[in-house]
Amino acid sequence: MEKMSRVTTALGGNVLTGRTMHCHLDAPANAISVCRDAAQVVVAGRSIFKVYAIEEDQFVEKLNLRVGRKPSLNLSCADVVWHQMDENLLATAATNGVVVTWNLGRPSRNKQDQLFTEHKRTVNKVCFHPTEAHMLLSGSQDGFMKCFDLRRKDSVSTFSGQSESVRDVQFSIRDYFTFASTFENGNVQLWDIRRPDRCERMFTAHNGPVFCCDWHPEDRCGAGGRWVDGGWLATGGRDKMVKVWDVTTPRAREVHCVQTIASVARVKWRPECRHHLATCSMMVDHNIYVWDVRRPFVPAAMFEEHRDVTTGIAWRHPHDPSFLLSGSKDSTLCQHLFRDASQPVERANPEGLCYGLFGDLAFAAKESLVAAESGRKPYAGDRRHPIFFKRKLDPAEPFAGLASSALSVFETEASGSSISWFVDTAQRYALAGRPLAELCDHNAKVARELGRNQVAQTWTMLRIIYCSPGLVPSANLNHSVGKGSSCGLPLMNSFNLKEMAPGLGSETWLDRSKGDARSDTVLLDSSATLITNEDNEETEGSDVPADYLLGDVEGDEEELYLLDPDHTHPEEPEYVLPQEAFPLRHEIVDTPPGAEHLQDKADSPHVSGNEADAASLAPVDSSFSLVSVSHALYDSRLPPDFFSALVRDMLHFYAEQGDVQMAVSVLIALGERVRKDIDEQAQEHWYTSYIDLLQRFRLWNVSNEVVKLSTSRAISCLNQASTSLHVNCSHCKRPMSGRGWVCGRCHRCASMCAVCHHVVKGLFVWCQGCSHGGHLQHIMKWLEGSSHCPAGCGHLCEYS
Questions:
Q1: How far apart, in whole angstroms, are the C-alpha atoms of residue 328 and residue 750?
Q2: The CA-based dihedral angle spanning residues 444, 450, 454, 457, taken in that order and rounded to the nearest 10 degrees
Q3: In what order do the strands lie in the sheet containing 232-237?
């Protein structure tokens, strides 16, 4: 539904009147541009190239520039620009690498003027000089920029960025000879049109491709005669950020940074508003946002009319901040009235809660609530400045007083709980390269040394479940394993119960009055001892928490008994299992064996195969109470995936507790054993969360290892993107060929250290501004005392 509010703006002799409106196009639009009198707009795309008149209540089609019997690739436009000095002059960038100029004043039906075919690949951007009527600049996917003089039939100069494709080019409004260009590798270059051999300045602006840039429209002088706003350059990239750079300083300085929710495709400064700019996304997000760069996390205004990705935005007049035009892939052309925009800041939540990497807790709440607590101390910020909160805005600014919060930070005490275990665990865990049994044992040992007993026990149980006893040394097992057993699980031997809590026996003995056997959980204290050594001595058991489940047994006669002198049954002085339950190979002696005989039977840490099939229980002296169990924990005939549901629930448990490190480590260690039982989206979510934590702690090598070993297809391809490295020779600046590290032009090695003048073998660090570098430690030590390049080129290098 269209909003009916109208705005009338007087601009000199012109009057702009309009409202929020839209019109349907014949095809999706790739770019739009407005003529200098703000009365017409041109829309260009792969299948559309039309001029519309902007009237008070609607758009009216005036001219269709796609003429001819056969469709031509010259009309498939990736970008369009309208000259701001000549209302009849247009230029388009074609997908086949052709730059076309159009003269709307020609009397013929075909308005095409000139064709420039010097680019080899798609032209991404064209730009007219703001004050020079005959100068046109283009940037192409082939990595070259060309400057055309419209009075000639070819380019007058070619600029090589010595990098990947050029995504945007823009002439400076303040400086006649300067233009900016952005590249796929994240760099921004500033050029002087009089010097096509090399750029004047280059700096890395984004982590990934830089899709757009825009010079600040105001030329305002500050103290000392330095340009304040005219030297600001806004850039947007795939890293979902919009950055504002001050390029008037000797080194480009980041002034503001706006965090968006998707890749930034277009950025345009808002006229007459020094700190406002508009952005649209390349994918996912269909809305247009207007940001106040001083408040970078909540947009000042939002336009939600489009139903598909917005491909082009333009302010209707360079001195009117009320009207914004946009084109989209949903085949619509819209005029947005700023007054009708929604204001997300009105719905912003003034409360927030966040944990820091070092365990600090940051809490933001309304200033009125915080002010009411007079005893609360303000945050001094002695450790580091919280970059996610900014200074209080000027109340005179729009939307400034709608949502404001006060920040409180609660720091962890030095003696309090530390999360250093996360870093230690990530660095010490073994996830691949060994048998699963060794991985589980190693990781259990690491977790136990760090005081994480539950995690250690989990690794131990995973080893027991998935590993054959033949692959695990008996010395590494916490319990005895039958030599002749094929089930692959340990058997529970004799446990001393002298130190059991009083009354435990009466609560856990099995009721024999019913035919069906039942199982009870017997909790053994960690001080319980296990008789397994050959010297018949009571040795300390495993330091793993001793929670054992005496499982179900088959038949009435295969029940387990807890022999306690305080709860003896005189009617049953001794217990002999009937022969029907177990095939016996030796004669059963009526005389009950003594304690010495029982300990002799426990000499070996392993129970023989014959004894694994039978159990003998007999009452002993009250000074020696024990329970002897020789029944396997599960039948050897169970399928291999019997425990899959249990392992799946365990992984979800750790993930829900926030321990994605454990969930991901188990996923990698078990591999295909458990991958099919976990939802693909859940795995991807766990991996991305863990990788994000590793990168926050700067554990880059561990993060890359997790990506490489990932069981998720969406994660394993993360380190396969943007792997091309374009290297220039540090001496002659020529791009290096694929024949090695020796330059084909000057025949010098490119990996020479600028400090020690030796060939670098190992880690090599270089300056992206001047291409000089060397050994990491040498460069770090050099820059501690000097900011100039050690090669003597005069460049101000920086290592961070």
A1: 46
A2: 20
A3: 210-215, 232-237, 241-246, 253-259
Q: Are strands 405-410 and 361-366 parallel, antiparallel or unpaired?
A: antiparallel
* Coil, strand or helix at 783: helix
Q: What is the DSSP code string of 436-466?
A: HHHHHHHHHHHHHHTT-HHHHHHHHHHHHHH
Window from 497-511, 698-712, 744-758 with minimum mean pLDDT: 497-511
Q: Tokens representing 424?
A: 């230690």
Radius of gyration of the chain (CA): 38
Return all residues near 354 (Cβ < 8 A) that are at least 6 apart.
361, 362, 388
Pairwise CA distance, residues 34 & 578, whole Å: 99
Per-residue pLDDT of 645-692, as tens digits, reads: 899 999 999 999 989 999 999 999 998 888 888 888 899 999 999 999
| Residue 402 structure tokens | 């709608």
| Helical axes 660-670 vs 453-466, angle rounded to 10° | 20
Count of other CB atoms within 10 angstroms of residue 665: 25
If you ran DSSP here, which 8-state letter would residue 248 be given?
Answer: T
- Could you say which DSSP state residue 365 is in? E
Among 60, 26, 31, residue whose Cα is nearest residue 45: 31
| pLDDT of residue 226 exceeding 90 | no
Cβ(15)–Cβ(55) under 8 Å? no
The vertex-40 CA angle with 34 and 44, nearest 5°, equals 60
pLDDT for 335: 94
47: tokens are 């299948």
Orientation angle between helical segments 644-656 and 660-670, nearest 10 degrees: 150
Strands 764-766 and 14-19: unpaired
> Rounded to an integer, what is the distance from CA 291 to the centroid of its chain?
24
Q: How far apart are CA 171 and CA 159, in angstroms?
A: 14
Beta-bridge mates of residue 91: 81, 101
- Eight-state DSSP code of residue 165: -
How far is residue 554 from each of residues 492, 507, 579, 634, measured CA to CA in Å? Answer: 17, 21, 14, 11
In 3D, which of 759, 771, 685, 695 has the Cα closest to residue 733? 771
φ, ψ dihedrals at 781, nearest 5°: -65, -40
Mean pLDDT of the chain: 75
Q: Which two tokens stand for residue 237?
A: 């990239």
**Cβ of 253: how many Cβ atoms within 10 Å?**
12
The per-residue pLDDT for 230 is: 61
Query: Three-state secondary structure along 172-226?
Result: CCCCCCEEEEEECCCEEEEEECCCCCCCCEEEECCCCCEEEEEECCCCCECHHHC
- Residue 251 · residue 797 · CB < 8 Å: no
DSSP letter string, 380-436? ---S---TTS-PPPPTTSTTTTTS-EEEEEEPPPTTS---HHHHHHHHH---SSS-H
| Residue 326 and residue 337 in contact, taking contact as beta carbons nearer than 8 Å | no
Q: Which residue type sits at 110? A: N
Token pair recorded at residue 589: 């002696």
Q: Count other Cβ atoms within 10 Å, centred on residue 318.
A: 15
The three-state DSSP-derived secondary structure of 81-131 is EECCCCCCEEEEEECCCCEEEEECCCCCCCCEEEEECCCCCCEEEEEECCC
- CA 64, distance to chain mean position in Å, is 45
Tell me the C-alpha distance between 630 and 598, whole Å: 13
Q: Which of 720, 712, 716, 645 is nearest to 682 (CA)?
A: 712
Contacts of 529 (CB under 8 A, 6+ apart): 495, 496, 538, 539, 540, 541
E strands, 553-667, in order: 626-628
Mean pLDDT score, 56-60 = 90
Residue 730, pLDDT score: 65
What pLDDT, in 10s, does the model give residues 73-109?
888 899 999 998 888 999 999 989 999 999 998 888 8
C-alpha to C-alpha distance for 322 and 4, rounded to whole angstroms: 15
